[in-house]
Fold this sequence. Notes:
The protein is an alpha+beta fold. The chain contains four helices and twelve strands, in the order ββββββαβαβαββββα. The chain has helices at residues 58-70, 87-97, 112-116, 155-164; strands at 5-6, 9-10, 13-14, 28-30, 36-38, 46-51, 77-83, 102-106, 120-121, 126-127, 130-134, 140-145. The strands form four sheets. It has a five-stranded mixed β-sheet. Strands 3-9-10 form a three-stranded antiparallel β-sheet. The chain has a two-stranded antiparallel ribbon with strand order 1-2.
Amino acid sequence: MANVTFKGNAITLLGNEVKVGDKAPNFTVLANDLSEVTLNDTKGQVRLITSVPSLDTGVCDAETRRFNEEANSLGNVKILTVSVDLPFAQKRWCAASGIENVQTLSDHRDLSFGEAYGVAIQELRLLARAVFVVDSNDTVTYVEYVSEATNHPNYEAAIEAAKAAK
């Protein structure tokens, strides 16, 4: 598993670490209207998937805003941000933040995404910060497990990987 810390403290990540070249694991999360969403719902598209501890924190807020701003330069890439925030809180946050190009998804119910992608933090029941790019054939083409969950990801590398994915 990836070695990740949260505020400098070692944490335990549950699930399976995803690597470049892997078939992207499926998952079931909730949209802001409580409908179920799976990876298969975006089949045939390039996906840039981020996991964040909570949209109500400074780094997660800034990260989601950044990917929302970059969306137009990414063309037909679907951007998904997954956290364990409740769908109602995600909907409120998106409305207040003007987020229109990123789909926020909640993994609060059963940590399906967190365990499938190896980002569920056992000690906190939050998701670690990570970025995954999945191509239109469901192959993982980029992975970043951010080593300190309170740090920003490498935006430029993720954006370039999303642009390069087919």
